[in-house]
From TrEMBL:
Belongs to the oxygen-dependent FAD-linked oxidoreductase family. This is FAD-binding PCMH-type domain-containing protein. It comes from the Eukaryota. Residues 28-200 form the FAD-binding PCMH-type domain. Its cofactor is FAD. Pfam families: FAD_binding_4. PANTHER family: BINDING OXIDOREDUCTASE, PUTATIVE (AFU_ORTHOLOGUE AFUA_1G17690)-RELATED, FAD-BINDING PCMH-TYPE DOMAIN-CONTAINING PROTEIN. It comes from Penicillium angulare. Keywords: FAD, Flavoprotein, Oxidoreductase. One of its GO terms (molecular function) is oxidoreductase activity.
């Protein structure tokens, strides 16, 4: 077992182990006692038992993409799963068994090439499946195909006392319930996910895009809102406020990505947008051949490595005037690499969810991804996010765990009954708070977890 101890390792080696795989270069000032680079389930069990012997907590890192760096905790044993990568595919039953540090791109690259299947993982290609699935998984075409965690058939878990168990609808069902939406508060270390796969629509993977000058913000946003609820069920829709590469003027970019079996079906699905779009686009394309790998490359460009990030989000009330509520967020970006996102969730948001921890959603998901390069810009960029969210959050019903930082702002992440049940399950399976859980201000939440209440201030 590869262990890097803070008090004995070379400082450079320790720092690389502590934050080298943290995507956000706005590094935290928190210091684990040790980092265990686990390569197997057996080493994960050993690491949990080591933490118990030393009477310290356990933190877990799968992909390192948490904006708030939840894996980096004071006086913990950090189990880094970056070297623990494994997948098995049962093609006949369309099931994959995957370790948490496998990324969506790694999994789908293999599935598409070898089996003509895919899994609706994270949009950003290097997001690890572990954190993504535990917080719910707002993956490809979530508004129609549903949450990625709904495709978790079961999972293997090392409990807080170091036992390896399996969880599904009949075995340890309370942990299975919690795993689909608990986020970083899940009271165990997942070693493997058992996932239901879907066919990959290679021949009918197409996209249309419309880039409008920001002066047309209201007209363009009203248009996409008017067509979204009844749009084709295999089409993902996103609205992005951004600076196009090499340009000094902001634009509103509206993207339709369709996943059909044939090019003809794809064109028929995308045509209603083409025929109703407002005039005045600075750039547009209709039904061009695309691919999941092509979309990964676009996401990779929008989320560059070795940059500083501040993310925030909210589910906007269904009856809100969405363009008005989000206008400042979409038209006043503080940096050319920053962007704002609106992602429609209807019809997924209008159906009854399975019985699982995940329970917070609305028709309108909004997120800010403020991206910059130098520490000297920290205060300005964070202040912009804070100012925008002070106004937006008053029109929200809650937020998504994945784009949140509990140290900065608390809000609702679950329905009230689900939140109470989740915190009870956490205390049942981890009564001593061995697993670090939710990183709130001062890292004080412990076994109590999050309060799941609107704070209405920042």
């Amino acid at each position: 077992m590869d262990i890097i101890w803070r008090d004995s390792a070379d400082n450079g080696v320790y720092e690389e182990a502590r934050v080298g795989r943290v995507f956000n270069h706005r590094r935290p000032s928190r210091f684990p006692q040790a980092v265990v680079k686990a390569r197997s389930e057996e080493e994960i069990v050993q690491a949990v038992k080591l933490a118990a012997e030393r009477k310290c907590r356990v933190a877990v890192r799968s992909g390192g993409h948490s904006w708030a760096a939840w894996s980096v905790r004071d006086d913990s044993i950090l189990i880094d799963l970056g070297n623990y990568k494994n997948m098995e595919v049962d093609a006949d039953n369309q099931v994959a068994r995957v370790t948490p540090s496998m990324t969506g791109r790694e999994l789908n690259s293999f599935l598409i090439k070898e089996h003509g299947m895919m899994f609706p993982g994270g949009h950003c290609p290097d997001v690890g499946l572990g954190g993504f699935l535990l917080q719910g998984g707002m993956g490809w075409n979530c508004r129609n195909w549903g949450w990625a965690c709904e495709r978790v058939l079961g999972l293997d878990v090392v409990t807080a006392d170091g036992n390896l168990i399996h969880c599904n609808a009949t075995q340890n069902p309370d942990l299975y319930w919690a795993a689909r939406g608990a986020g970083p508060g899940f009271p165990g270390v997942v070693t493997k996910f058992h996932l239901s796969l879907i066919p990959y629509p290679e021949k009918g993977f197409r996209s249309s895009g419309y880039m409008y000058p920001i002066s047309m913000y209201g007209k363009a946003f009203d248009w996409v809102l008017s067509i979204t609820a009844s749009f084709d069920n295999d089409t993902e829709i996103a609205v992005v406020g951004q600076y196009p590469e090499g340009e000094d003027e902001m634009h509103l970019f509206i993207l339709f990505v369709v996943m059909k079996n044939t090019p003809e079906e794809a064109e028929a699905a995308l045509r209603p947008a083409q025929e109703t779009r407002p005039d005045g686009a600075a750039k547009e394309w209709f039904c061009v051949e695309d691919s999941l790998e092509g979309q990964y490359k676009n996401q990779e460009s929008a989320n560059p490595e070795k940059h500083r990030y501040c993310a925030e989000n909210a589910y906007i009330k269904n009856d809100a005037d969405v363009p008005s509520v989000l206008e400042e967020a979409f038209t006043t970006l503080p940096h050319k690499k920053a962007f704002s996102l609106w992602y429609p969730m209807n019809p997924c948001s209008r159906r009854k969810l399975p019985d699982m921890a995940l329970s917070m959603q609305s028709d309108h998901y909004f997120a800010l991804y403020t991206v910059w390069e130098t520490e000297s810009d920290d205060d300005r960029c964070k202040a912009w996010v804070k100012n925008v969210m002070k106004k937006v959050e008053r029109h929200s019903v809650g937020a998504y765990l994945g784009d949140s930082d509990f140290q900065v702002r608390r809000t609702k992440f679950w329905a009230d009954d689900n939140a109470r049940r989740l915190m009870d399950i956490r205390r049942k399976w981890d009564p001593n708070g061995r697993i670090c859980g939710y990183l709130d201000q001062g890292d004080q939440s412990g076994t109590q977890g999050l309060t799941n209440a609107h704070e209405w201030k920042l």
